[in-house]
Design a protein that fits this description.
The chain is α/β, with parallel strands linked by helices. It folds into 3 domains: 79 residues, Rossmann fold, CATH 3.40.50; 205 residues, UDP-N-acetylmuramoyl-L-alanine:D-glutamate ligase (3-Layer(aba) Sandwich); 143 residues, Mur ligase, C-terminal domain (Protein-Tyrosine Phosphatase, Chain A, Alpha-Beta Complex), CATH 3.90.190.20. Helices cover 35% and strands 22% of the residues. The chain contains 15 helices and 20 strands. The strands form 4 sheets. The protein has a 10-stranded mixed β-sheet, with helices on both faces. A 6-stranded mixed β-sheet has the order 15-16-20-17-18-19, sandwiched between helices. Helix 7 crosses helix 8. The chain starts with a helix and ends with a helix. The mean pLDDT is 91.
Length: 445
């Protein structure tokens, strides 16, 4: 939502809005000229002289929201976030990056790579680029890069020239209901690709690979990437500093690919971004340079600081596969110290459905602290809490800690770590707030 507001402001539109609490995003939009209230109320529709000509809402906004109720009473047109974003794409060559995991990082890599080629794309991403600190930009170029959200099916509003699907794995069943329905929405997304456009799919992921086969059978142009037989093959990857170095095979030639963020999964995301950039007409050398310089995204293995010889990172992983992938990628960064994870489950439905898989993924760490569930849009479910995951983790009991009290976590973790260890705060909720608090506690000690 803040990204859409940022682009509208850059295009000279008057923007007003509200949020539940103060944040740096609110501050940034106010600096750009937006009029923003903290707290929702019907009178917020009058923040702009004459009131708004349209009201944009996200899926998180309930019909009982007082501003939405007032907009409907006044007859003000109401647009879903995806419809507003689609309107901003009009007249541009659009690249949409979708998938259960990795779409924010891949979208960000593509954006930075295109910027390196001086193409100045417009972009809208689900996270803030470390380079600019922004999640959106109104560019002077003809390209628009967007992260495409499948969680509520809203990516069906877009009509991309290039569509990337990093993977397709069951998630967001609170909205889609069944695994089949979740997979089917990706088929609908592929049908939205412009005639003559391209689907870029990961051949290593069963869901993405099957999607590519169905798309190709229906006449869609497809390019694949992966570790095995593909249009672009990831030949090998080795850790280097905080990132990695990969070798890829592209058009029969071996090419070195530097990635400034750790993990083989990030190298695969980089290959997807490279393929998309080439399809959009960017030069290979410029794309490679941009990907090598990519500094990451806020909340994607983001270094928050170091204190007492302990490094503290923050990561958005909130699905079992994401947790597993990030912990595997973090292990060589942590070595020879311990890998400690503070995990906050996100959504009661996801916790109930995937508790055992979360437990198996978290067992890859040396010490695990599990918080209570961040419910977000869901009401609590009886018997569903962080204890459900903590109790299933196959580690010695003294290395697994269920701690529902936020306030106790910094002192608890500070007592578990020593010089050389690495801590990750992990989850899609407010667990991100614990990194600075842990660093302060380590400093105090």
């Amino acid at each position: 939502m803040s990204g859409i507001a940022r682009i509208l402001l850059a295009r000279g539109r008057a923007v007003s809005g509200s949020d539940a609490k103060q944040s740096r995003a609110v501050d940034a939009l106010r600096v750009q000229g937006a009029r923003i209230a903290v707290g929702q109320a019907a009178e917020n529709l009058d923040l702009l002289d004459g009131g708004p000509t349209a009201v944009v809402v996200s899926t998180a906004i309930k019909e009982t929201n007082p501003e939405l109720v007032e907009a409907r009473r006044r007859g003000v047109p109401v647009l879903h976030r995806s419809a507003a974003l689609a309107a901003l794409m009009t007249g541009r060559r659009v690249a949409c990056i979708a998938g259960t995991h990795g779409k924010t990082s891949t979208t960000s890599m593509l954006t930075v790579a295109l910027q390196s080629c001086r193409l100045d794309p417009s972009f809208a991403i689900g996270g803030d680029l470390n380079e600019s600190g922004a999640n959106a930009h109104h560019g002077s170029g003809e390209i628009f890069v967007a992260e495409a959200d499948e969680s509520d099916g809203s990516f069906l509003a877009f009509a991309p020239w290039v569509a990337v699907v990093t993977n397709v794995e069951a998630d967001h069943l609170d909205h889609h209901g069944t695994v089949d329905a979740y997979e089917a929405v990706f088929d609908q997304f592929v049908k939205r690709i412009e005639p003559g456009g391209l689907l870029i799919a990961c051949a290593d992921d069963p869901g993405s690979a099957a999607l590519a086969e169905r798309a190709e059978a229906s006449g869609v142009r497809v390019r694949r990437y992966g570790r095995s037989t593909s249009d672009v093959v990831l030949l090998d990857h080795r850790p280097a500093d905080r990132g990695g170095v990969a070798r890829i095979s592209l058009a029969g030639k071996e090419i070195g690919l530097g990635v400034a963020v750790p993990g083989e999964h990030m190298a695969l995301n980089a290959v997807a971004a490279l393929l998309a950039g080439l399809e959009l007409g960017a030069p290979l050398d410029g794309l490679l340079a941009g990907i090598a310089a990519f500094g990451g995204v806020r909340r994607r293995f983001e270094l928050k600081g170091q204190a007492g010889g302990v490094r503290v990172y923050d990561d958005y992983a909130h699905h079992p596969s994401e947790v597993e992938t990030q912990l595997r990628a973090s292990r060589p960064v942590a070595a020879p110290g311990k890998l400690v994870v503070i995990f906050q489950p996100h959504l009661y439905s996801r916790t109930r459905l995937f508790a055992d898989r979360f437990a198996a993924a978290l067992a890859l760490a040396d010490e695990v602290v599990v918080l209570d569930v961040f419910g977000a849009r869901e009401a609590p479910e009886p018997g569903v809490s962080g204890a459900l995951i903590a109790g299933a983790i196959d580690l010695p009991k003294e290395r697994v800690h269920y701690e529902p009290s936020f306030e106790r976590v910094p002192a608890l973790v500070a007592g578990l770590v020593e010089d050389g260890d690495l801590v990750i705060t992990m989850g899609a909720g407010d667990v991100t707030m614990l990194g600075p608090e842990l660093l302060a506690e380590l400093d105090r000690r």
